[in-house]
Structure formats: C-alpha cells, structure tokens
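A brief tutorial aside. Many learners find it easier to grasp structure tokens once they have seen a single protein encoded end to end. The record that follows does exactly this for D-glycerate dehydrogenase. Read the sequence first, then the structure, and try to relate runs of similar tokens to stretches of the chain.
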Amino acid sequence: MKVLVTKKLPGNWISYLSENVEVALWEENYPPPKEWIIDNIRDKDGILITLTERIDKEIIDSAPKLKVISTYSVGFDHIDVEYAKKRGIIITYTPEVLTEATADLIFGLLIAVSRRIVEGDKLIREGKWEISWYPTFMLGSEVYGKTLGLLGMGRIARAVMRRAKGFDMNIIYNSRAPHDVDAKFVDLNTLFSESDFLVIAVDLNTTTYHIVNEEKLKLMKKSSFLINASRGPVIDENALIKALKEGWIRGAALDVFEHEPLPKDSPLISMNNVVLTPHLGSATIETRDKMAEIAVKNLILALRGEKPIYEVR
Ligand code: DGY
C-alpha cells in the first residue's frame, strides 16, 4: 500500500506508518500546493491530510486507487465528503481527543477578553502602566454568574458547559434539536439576545456558513462577547468588524478566521477589545500527539479493510 502524507506529525507516528505502508511525505509546515498533491496522489491508496489541504473533486479524480482519506482534525469541511463517499472512499477523522484542549482554550479566551488580560499585558510591555492602581482602572466584565450561550451542543460545547458550571453560569443553547443536558434550549434569536458570552461550537457546513451575520449580531447585548474557536466562516467577519467598531457588542475572542493566516491588514488586529489566537484550539503537546496516533491508526486500519477508530459517517 502507498500513502501520501501532507504534513510532518508530532512523535514517531510517521515512522510507525512507514513500518506498515510506503509513505511519501511533504516535509514542510506550510501546506503543499494543490499540483503537488495531484502529481503525487495518482498511485496512492490513502492520504493523510490536515485541515489546510482542500480535498476537492479534482484531487479525488486524479487518485483512481484512493481508498482512504484520513484527516488529522475533527473538522472535515476541507473535504468534499459527498463526492468522496460516492467514489466509495472512507473518510476518517480525530474527534474526542481534542475536546478538552479546545474547551480549555475557549474558556481561556472568554476570560482573557472579558478581563482584558491581553490588553493589560500589552499596556505593561509598552511602558504605559503609569498609575499603580485606582478604582476605575481597566475594568472588565464579570464572568461568574453570567449567561453563557452555546451555539451547538456537541462534544466541545458540553466540555465548555462543564467548565462554565464551575463559574455558576446560567447556560442556554441552540442546536438542531434539544439535548438531554443541564442547560436551557432556546431559539436562535433568543440565544443571540440573551447571552452575555456567546460561544460558537458548531462545525462548518452549508447551514452554519455565516450563521453569525449582521442581523444576528444586532440582536446581541452591547455588553456581550463573542467567542469562536470552531471555524472562521461560521461568522461573517466583515459584519463582526462592523459590530465591534460600532459597539453593538463589547468584544470578541477569536481563534479562527475566514482567511488563515489572518491577513496582516485585518482591522481586527488594531482593536483592543479583541483577543486573537492563531488557530490553537487543539494545540497542546498531549492532544496533538494523540491526534497523530489516531490519524495514523485510522489510515492503517481502513486500508486493511478493518474498522477505523473514527469514521466520518
Ligand atoms: C480541528 O481538528 O478541526 C481543529 O480545528 C484543529 O484544532
């Protein structure tokens, strides 16, 4: 069996893979050009990708032997799943292992933006901390006891919810259907209008693309915050920029963007009420290693005709 791997992975997982199949590896951290994938996938039985490689119809068509696409991610919006399935290709992914790491980052972002942690750090580093302490200096917003809105109720939303319970937050959510969870199901407009902190926890698909738009942002409280570590295009970024500039909401904390890396001229960069991180949701040593193990094992199992650990259904 021959496989193509589009990124180096942490740990010894590529060596492990090489003991089982013949591996052709893209050695850089930046994504390979599409032409490289097309040229190299022709004789391959499997491909192991990350979320920066878009696997579309053209790539699938240039891989007549392809049986498995293993993605090193929980999201699979970068794969034309429908077309691959029509071709009988198995798609595997790495959910569950990154849930807690992502929820930690989301909660970190939530606290960072509400308590102005990054702004405070910047102020000191820029030598602008002039007066030691006074009652109205750099006031943030309380997290404890506030209303947390969750858009989505999957694994990551539940993990955020568990953390929020420790902060005695009132939790409301909206998802395709109500779940048996200790939180109140509300309609979409209520979610936007009642949340003090609105956390996006849906995957990107045709129904969630730009679900956070001008109309929805206008429903939010002026004192509220928006937090997103799912996928950038769930939010209409231009609408969010307008909302932040015009004070429709108090702030935002973003780990994902419509275009990544975030363009250097993005207005978000100069906004003090915005916390930005470069798609770090799952970026812990432990989680990234586990993701590598699962992505590699998924690929090997599926190529052998055995049940992979996680298959996209
Ligand atoms: C994923 O796995 O889809 C995440 O975005 C990576 O952090």
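Self-check: The mean pLDDT is 98. If you spotted this yourself, you are ready for the next section.
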